[in-house]
Amino acid sequence: ETEADALRVITKAQIASARDRCKNGCADAEALDDALRAAKASASTFDSRGEKIAKAVTLLAVAEVHLADVSKDFSQALQTAKLSLSILQEAGADKSRLAMARRVLGDIYLAQGRYYMVSQTANEVVKLIGESPDVMAEAREVAGVLIQHAKAKLDAREASAALKPAQEASRLYEKMGDPRGAASAGCQEALAYLQRPNAQALARRAAIRAVSFAKDAGDGRIEARAWNAAGQAYLQEGSVDEALQAQRQSMSLAREKNDLDAISDALDGIMNIYARDELPEKASAAAEEELMNAKKLGNRRHEALAQQKMATAMMMQDRAREAVRRATDAAEKLRQAGDRKGEAKALQLIVELQCQAKRNVEAMQSAKEATQLLVEVGNVKGAVHLLQILTSLHMEMGNGEEALKAAYAQAKCYKDAGFTEEEAGATMGVAEMVASMRGPREGIRLAKESASIYHSIGDLAGESKAQVQVSGLQVQLKAASSAVQAGKLAEELARKSGDPKAISAALQGVAESYILSERWNEAVASVKEAVDVIEKAGIKDESTRAQALQSTASVHLSVANFDVNNPSRPRPRGLKESLKAGEEALRLWRKIGDKQNEATAL
């Protein structure tokens, strides 16, 4: 086992070396092939000796090499990591090794954009080991999955849920004396603060602290990301000069490491500063400077990246035709470089630019072509994003049935890829769309199908959400008893899940079903508890609070409307309560910038 651990460390070093010797922005393919052959040979040797745990550890190394090869999809990485975990479980491996395998799985899920699975994996590791392990090997794995959890929540735009795991990871890394890990966790903490209102100073402090840790670790890649976060914080504070200085420092480090992702982030930061000051020509000049730099290096992927940024800058100047041409050139360069994933992303940008330019027919054709390529290279989330654009375009053009086909295609895309949790969510989306076009009865069938999918993976909160949808559609059908039944089932599932957001949403759904049955007191009690659950849990997510308050306003208003139409009532109940809750919801929607819900609240 010790030998296998050492071999895995060697493999990780080979992967790092392949990235440092990157060609055209990708890890050196030849170096990765050498690492893969060596890792597979080690696994085979341990297998012949009957050493199961050692074999499983080297299989994790094989999975990590597959994950590092960005030119391919991640199916081989996922399959190998799952096999490793299965072998470790059968062999009765210790907790740290089981956590190690789950952490690798978390890295793969994160690369695939499967945020629910990342969170589930992190929860499994914390449950297995605990939040504050004393054993160094166990603490390292817990800290690693906490960072994964934070990244997943940030990518899913759930900043309130990202902050705690990032802070916990930082605490563990500092306790272990690991400045590199502390720097990485600090970056996630800063990014979480950036997504929260009025937290710019906290974001800046977290980012500068991450810069310090990265310098102590001598890790230029992480330092570049920390400076990028600091630049964003400075910009939010209105300190434009400091923001520009931080982004330029990030760019310098990113170029030094030839880290195209970090270069892209830094260039975005610089361009955003100029866009904020309404200086699109300077944003375009920054992208052009990067293009010239890439041409000097002879790096096609770098050139393509700069071309795409130039396309974005040209859209700021209303130069739509030239923007699309630049993006098309970028896609061609990536195709010539053999980077099919990059080409697919470039095609995705072309579609988005065509939509912005209101060239809908061209956008629809481009979307169909790009979707196929995205599926082929394993970018399932990207493919679904384009199918969502197709759905919207068809709806804008009045092609309801075509829009519905594109919506169904989203769920099928997830199903074919084995993304079960995303398939369930997409099916809920289709249910809503079908209900609006063909009536609630057909929507109920799909909502129940979604609930069944969530049930199959043991996602109680997801199943509750689907049952809330079933209840709402039953309300539209005026099926009072069925609506209450589905609502109570949703509440039961949510309480079993222990997720306060799910409990609150279920209680709001129950209240809506009670209104249909004219069970006014029970409806009021349900929405009151829906708000209380959020407040007691200390949830800072303002959209969740606003939704609960808006539901409260709606229920009290329904009570008042009933009393107005009931001569036996001396005066309507609930108007004062409805107005108070509605005004608070309105304030929150405006603060968040959610125009649609703001209009509903008004």
Q: What features would you describe in this structure?
A:
There is one protein chain. The termini are far apart. Helix 13 runs parallel beside helix 15. The chain has helices at 2-20, 29-49, 52-68, 75-90, 95-112, 115-129, 136-155, 159-176, 179-194, 200-217, 220-237, 240-257, 260-276, 280-297, 300-316, 320-336, 340-356, 360-376, 380-396, 400-417, 420-438, 440-456, 460-476, 480-497, 500-516, 520-536, 542-564, 575-592, 595-601. The chain is mainly α.
Can you lay out the helices and strands and say which pair or pack?
Elements: H1 2-20, H2 29-49, H3 52-68, H4 75-90, H5 95-112, H6 115-129, H7 136-155, H8 159-176, H9 179-194, H10 200-217, H11 220-237, H12 240-257, H13 260-276, H14 280-297, H15 300-316, H16 320-336, H17 340-356, H18 360-376, H19 380-396, H20 400-417, H21 420-438, H22 440-456, H23 460-476, H24 480-497, H25 500-516, H26 520-536, H27 542-564, H28 575-592, H29 595-601
